[in-house]
Automatic annotation (TrEMBL):
This is Oligopeptide-binding protein AppA. It holds the Pfam family SBP_bac_5. GO terms for biological process: peptide transport. Belongs to the bacterial solute-binding protein 5 family. Residues 172-552 form the Solute-binding protein family domain. It comes from Gimesia algae. Keywords: Signal, Transport.
Length: 639
């Protein structure tokens, strides 16, 4: 399957965040007022593309890899010997990392041959929330990106080391100019939409122009795509991407979800929202898909059922692409983690992310291992308290630092997270190439220092009522704020701990459980004082620019630092990897100094799996979050 690697929303991780912590994650829908202001902008200037022959004559093209994701994984696994047999792995209880590696080495492998695979199988996935839209460019949560990764059509993917390649399922050839200003892609001519209409280069150009239409509310997909100057279709198969400038990040901007031109061009002008008119509602409910699966049934709030599309892998009676391992993919929507675990044990779902409590206390007995096993791996997903820097409370960095010193990080990590997660000090994991060296040291609770910082910032209990206050424009404001979170157990516990800690130093914090879609909306509109959230690290550190650059679309906390803005611009223009690493390491350090977030922990992947499931492979983007991704999962034929 393809992926959309440039999003700093590790798009498979948002539903895990909902399940594990209830954070808003990488929400991406555009607020109405933001959309209204964008209509005044011109996002795509007219462009006269040169003739292809003239371009070929002047450009020095360099061949780029076109690979099969599964073959790439199969080649890697051929060099890795299983530490135990499958039967032995299924008998193991995962009590330490040595056993964890044994389980993954045996159960995380691809089938040896087609005869091992149950081709008629259904996999029942767990997701913590329903999808808002089936249109791939309208994605605003991970479940939507998960669905579009199965139903959608894409050109590029990447391996476990984040090396990009064009996907052989859809691409014949990929060339980049030596100066990195152009990319030329030739599509396969045996691609069709689910309604039988051929997929062509014109669909990609149409999608690009739609994404760049300021009246279309798609900021998540637009981020990165807006760095492309133009895309020209020279015929039905040949595309050239024209970049605005020579940047090392250009390769990550090439891949975005594609929509069918013949469907959406008919009513784009009359309804640029792509969702309000009866016409768009029809295709929302019955979408035309370009990928391996199509939507067979959708019960809102209950499940989304996808069916393998024969016309994806068969043409004129011949198999032209790898057949997806599952005939059907069912995404079961279960919000409560305990209910989901019961469904896992009962075989109603085949996999789920486990929060620390479930991993430590409810998946260690014979009852769990009768039908299930579990595994874990490193994942670059961090969680935080976000402080709205435009509020009276958190505009000063000294106050934000005080919040970080007031919080009992040790109690959170040891007791609430059961010692499973590691402390986080900023936006990059210590194992990432762009992390600072040396790594910033984690905050520890220091109430005396927190009080001193608040005193210096002018937040003092002037009237003796036990609550700190400060005068603004002649009005005394008590330090009383709310932190927005969901009602998931772990997130509530962490926010409640913050409330208790702050009460010790004269600050009143109200924990405000909020429905997930409402959280998304409030975050986009900056309508909060503080929030508990989480982000996944993108394939390139430049993806974080839309979180931290002044007035960036997903800079929910209204953070602004001209030096950080400048460094992000330098980082996306530096080709030397070591120099780039130093630039992003400096960004990490500046953010740590300013504390727009109180960084809490990196959440590793902890999963429960039905014993019939095979092929799960962990990477820093989770068990399904890199190139081969979900397509590597399979079920064996019953003996």
């Amino acid at each position: 399957m393809h992926q959309y690697p440039r999003f700093n929303l590790l798009f498979l991780s948002l539903f895990l965040m909902i399940t594990l912590a209830g954070c808003p994650g990488p929400a991406s829908d555009e607020a109405e007022d933001e959309a209204d202001s964008e209509t005044k902008e011109v996002l795509l200037e007219p462009f006269d593309a040169p003739k292809l022959a003239d371009l070929d004559a002047q450009v020095e093209w360099e061949e780029q890899p076109v690979l099969d994701s599964l073959e790439l994984l199969r080649e890697r696994q051929s060099q890795e010997k299983p530490l135990v047999s499958v039967d032995e792995a299924l008998k193991l209880k995962n009590t330490n990392q040595e056993i964890n590696e044994k389980i993954l080495s045996a159960l995380g492998r691809l089938p040896k041959n087609d005869e091992e695979v149950d081709w008629g199988a259904t996999i029942n996935r767990h997701v913590g929330a329903d999808l808002k839209s089936t249109n791939p460019i309208m994605g605003s949560s991970a479940v939507e990106f998960e669905v579009s990764s199965l139903t959608g059509f894409g050109l590029f993917s990447f391996d476990w080391n984040f090396k990009p390649f064009a996907v052989s399922d859809t691409v014949v050839s990929w060339q980049s100019s030596k100066d990195k200003l152009y990319d030329k892609v030739v599509l396969r001519d045996d691609l069709t939409w689910s309604d039988g209409v051929p997929i062509t280069a014109h669909d990609i150009v149409f999608t690009f122009k739609t994404i760049m239409n300021p009246e279309v509310p798609v900021p998540a997909v637009r981020s990165g795509t807006d760095q492309i100057r133009w895309i020209e279709a020279y015929d039905d198969q040949t595309l050239v991407f024209f970049h605005k400038e020579s940047l090392p990040t250009n390769v990550w901007n090439l891949n975005f979800p594609i929509i069918p031109k013949h469907i959406y061009e008919k009513e784009l002008k009359s309804d640029p929202t792509l969702q309000d008119s009866p016409y768009h509602v029809k295709f929302e409910n019955e979408p035309v898909t370009g990928g391996p699966y199509e939507i067979e049934k959708r019960e809102r709030g209950q499940e989304i059922l996808l069916k393998r599309r024969e016309s994806w892998y068969m043409q004129d009676g011949k198999q032209v692409r790898t057949r997806p391992y599952f005939e059907r993919v069912r995404l079961r929507i279960i919000e409560d983690p305990n209910t989901a675990l019961l469904a896992l044990k009962n075989g109603k779902i085949d996999e789920m992310a486990l929060n620390p409590e479930l991993w430590k206390t409810q998946t260690e007995d014979d009852d769990f291992y009768k039908t299930c096993t579990k595994a874990n791996g490193l994942e670059w997903v961090y969680f935080y308290f976000g402080w709205n820097c435009e509020t009276l409370f958190f505009k000063d960095k000294e106050v934000r630092q005080a919040m970080s010193y007031a919080f009992n990080h040790k109690e959170m990590l040891d007791e609430l997270c059961y010692g499973l997660y590691q402390p986080c000090t900023g936006i990059y994991h210590e194992t990432a190439w762009m992390a600072p060296d040396p790594m910033s040291k984690p905050y520890n609770q220091n109430l005396a220092k927190a009080e001193k910082l608040l005193d210096e910032a002018g937040w003092i209990d002037h009237d003796g009522d036990g609550i700190r206050d400060k005068e603004f424009d002649g009005k005394v404001i008590p330090f009383r704020f709310s932190v927005m979170t969901s009602s998931q157990p772990l997130s509530l516990s962490i926010c409640t701990l913050l409330k208790e800690n702050l009460a010790q130093i004269g600050v009143i914090c109200e924990v405000k459980p909020t429905e997930f879609t409402v959280m998304q909306e409030k975050a986009r509109n900056h309508q909060f004082q503080a929030m508990f959230g989480g982000w996944g690290t993108g394939t390139d550190p430049d993806t974080s620019i839309n979180l931290w650059k002044t007035e960036a679309a997903r800079n929910y906390v209204n953070y602004s630092n001209p030096e950080v803005d400048k460094l992000f611009e330098e980082g996306r223009r530096e080709f030397d990897v070591e120099k780039r690493a130093k630039i992003y390491g400096k960004i990490h350090e500046l953010l740590y100094e300013d504390q727009p977030y109180t960084w809490l922990y990196f959440r590793n992947s902890f999963y429960g799996f039905n014993k019939d499931l095979r092929g799960y492979v962990f990477s820093p983007r989770g068990p399904y979050g890199y190139g081969p991704g979900f397509s590597s999962l399979w079920k064996p034929v019953e003996n």
